[in-house]
Amino acid sequence: MTTSRRTLMTAAAAAGLAATAVATGTGTAYAKDGGRAVKEHFGTLADGTRVDRWTVQNGRTRLSVLSYGGIVQSLEIPDRHGRLANVSLGFADLDSYVAGSPYFGALIGRYGNRIANGRFTLDGHAYQLPVNDGPNSLHGGDKGFDKRVWSVEPFERAGHVGLTLRRVSPDGEMGYPGKLTVRVDYTLTPTGDFRIDYEATTDKATVVNLTNHTYYNLGGEGTGSIYDHRLEIAASRYTPVNKTLIPTGELAKVAGTPFDFRRPKAIGRDIREAHQQVLYGQGFDHNFVLDKGITSRPEHIATVSEPESGRVMRIATTEPGVQFYSGNFLVGTLAGTSGKVYRQGDGFCLETQHFPDSPNQPGFPSTVLRPGQTYRSTTVHSFSTR
After folding, report:
1. Which three-class secondary structure state does DSSP give residue 19?
2. What is the pLDDT of residue 28?
3. CA–CA separation, 110 vs 125, rounded Å?
4. The pLDDT value given to residue 76
5. Average pLDDT over residues 310-335
6. 3-state class of 97 per DSSP?
7. 3-state DSSP call for residue 151?
8. What's the sign of the alpha-carbon dihedral 175, 212, 330, 303?
9. List 156, 306, 319, 351, catalytic entry
10. Residue 75, pLDDT score
11. 81 is known as an active-site residue
């Protein structure tokens, strides 16, 4: 069957094009040529800091993002019959995110994934990071970028609509050296693609690995398991891990293992195989070494399809790796935006990134950023139906 792009505007979006600024009952809407952005109060942190939710729409794709953590709180796309559904896992209120989110939708930094024992050495200086995942540091520490409030500004240009998030991470935050100035653009393109552009500069040598931690279920949030989703990853190798999920340094072949997604297969097909790496991760929680390597422009690396809804997501990135996580640690203790409880395998993540523990693995691509350099990374999620 053929794949069709969604290019038609909804009536609501079309009506919004004519306005330049519209007051609503819950917030302020900003609209120019090609889209619409709505800002509304989402909650207040314990220290009195206001948290906003911004919603942008282009074509039939609608994205809601929180200023807290840069969190993708909702991403709505149509199925093969044109019915919209939120395909990202998350919470309906701020308190749930603060109380204990497993990084639902979060903007991750300074360093996505794990650093062994929370330690690394750079230019002869040893740095100690917070340990928040067994013996290791995970996703920037116990108060990483996912738990910080970002400044947010909407933009519209050349048919694209989106949000620019900015934050300055001070020297020494979570143990990392250097003042890091970060900009992240969340963009919806005219064809409904969801694009993320990361940019960062530093005043001191540091390590950087930014990513987004959205959990997807293309059948719709709260609809159950993702094990029947079909996944393809253009990776002939992956990085095996030890029992604390730190890479061993080996770039192992996927051939003949449950990690072979070079051809589309159901996520759940091999997830219960008695393979030591599957046992360590309690499913899939591994970095895949992309065949394309690092590229200056986003190149296709993965396709996911959901048979019942017909939704398809294609991912392109400039990054050399992608962490595939099959939602193994969702254990029925969290209720999502639909009011349904999330259980193991109810969502998956494909976190485009450099490799875990790269600061301690000289054979991995470097994550070092120095003064005068600019960190740049781009990932594009393209949606269609079959």
Report:
1. coil
2. 59
3. 18
4. 98
5. 97
6. helix
7. strand
8. negative
9. 351
10. 98
11. no
State how far the Cα of 196 lies from the Cα of 350, in Å rounded to an integer.
13
Structure tokens at 284: 């899939």
Catalytic residue from among 213, 229, 286, 381: 213
pLDDT at 46 over 70: yes
Beta carbons of 52 and 39 less than 8 angstroms apart: yes
pLDDT tens by residue, 68-119: 999 999 999 999 999 999 999 999 999 999 999 999 999 999 999 999 999 9
Long-range contacts of 177-181 (CB under 8 A, 24+ apart): 177/122, 177/125, 177/127, 177/204, 177/205, 177/206, 178/202, 178/203, 178/204, 178/205, 178/206, 178/369, 178/371, 179/203, 179/204, 180/110, 180/206, 180/208, 180/369
Question: What pLDDT score does 146 carry?
Answer: 98
Q: Do residues 337 and 86 touch, judged by C-beta distance below 8 A?
A: yes
Average pLDDT value for the chain: 92
Spell out the residues 6+ positions from residue 346 whose beta carbon is closer than 8 angstroms to its own: 89, 217, 222, 224, 225, 226, 327, 330
* Residue whose tokens read 């794949």: 3
In the residue annotation, 381 being an active-site residue is answered as: no
